[in-house]
Write a structure and sequence with these properties.
Blueprint lengths: L4 H47 L23 E4 L2 E8 L3 E6 L5 H7 L8 E2 L2 E3 L26 H11 L2 H9 L5 E8 L5 E6 L16 E6 L7 E6 L4 E3 L11 E2 L4 E5 L2
Antiparallel strand pairs: 1-2, 2-3, 3-12, 4-5, 5-11, 6-7, 8-9, 9-10
């Protein structure tokens, strides 16, 4: 019986190619695993490096070398922004964002249906479709305009959630919760209070300057707890909004945070 040499050679070639392919796949898998391990080490080293850079690790605001407190109105640089100091209690510093949130910044953190509230470095108190003073951004009709249902709260909370450095500060425990009221009363007669990482100022907390800027603030003991004031160096006045068209009710949003001293 004659052997089929050509068939044997063909099968040998197929097995040879199969073995070569298998070895190539094994080499690729080993190389891939090695690269994953290397990349993981590089990422870890990079993160450790970034954590050592102050701009990526906002651990707090440095105490003054002479031990004195920061004074109200003093300017500080924190988390890549300039702020005005409102209060220094030796442990924490309460700071007020110097520049109001800008239009593109507000639009960048809100759903598109809220984009109409942004106007330059100011924002409307209500959406264009809500023509009364008691406007709101969710809930039922005729709600008093409180901090809880205000667009000011929506904007400041969204801004904080989208700020990488401030989120890192929260994770590190250097941003403190603030307890505050918007002047509203609970059903049991007690004053309604909130505990949050960010808020807007009250009228008395405004750091006065020469800009005469309109600023959204919290009220105390008012029916509607978010209103705008005209802030000037020599006076701070509340404007009656009830006769102002909703699209003209615009003012700047200046978030406030409380930062640990180190």
């Amino acid at each position: 019986m004659k052997r089929n040499k050509s068939g044997f050679i063909a099968i040998s070639l197929i097995y040879s190619f199969f073995l070569v392919l298998l070895m190539m796949l094994l080499a690729i898998l080993v190389d891939y695993t090695h690269n994953r391990v290397l990349l993981s080490k590089v990422k870890k080293a990079t993160q450790e490096k970034l954590n050592g850079i102050s701009s990526f690790n906002p651990i707090g605001i440095k105490a003054k070398t002479n031990g004195s407190r920061y004074f109200p109105g003093e300017e500080v640089f924190y988390a890549n922004r300039y702020w005005y100091v409102m209060e220094d209690d030796d442990t924490y510093i309460t700071i007020f964002l110097r520049d109001a949130l800008e239009e593109e910044e507000i639009k960048g953190i809100l759903p598109v249906e809220y984009h109409s509230i942004a106007n330059g470095v100011k924002m409307q108190l209500c959406l264009d479709t809500q023509e009364s003073l008691n406007c709101y951004n969710y809930g039922e009709n005729n709600l008093s305009y409180t901090w809880e249902n205000s667009l000011a709260k929506l904007v400041t909370n969204s801004w904080l959630e989208n700020d990488f450095l401030l989120q890192k500060a929260i994770a590190l425990g250097t941003l403190s919760l603030m307890s505050f009221t918007d002047g509203n009363i609970n059903a049991d007669g007690s004053e309604k209070t909130y505990e949050e990482y960010v808020r807007i100022p009250t009228k008395n907390e405004i750091v006065r300057d020469n800009t005469c800027e309109y600023i959204w603030t919290l009220s105390v003991g008012e029916e509607n707890s978010v209103f705008r004031i005209k802030n000037c160096n020599s006076f701070t006045s509340i404007e009656e909004l009830i006769e102002t068209p909703v699209t003209n009710r615009i003012a700047g949003i200046h978030p406030i945070i409380k930062v640990k001293k180190i």
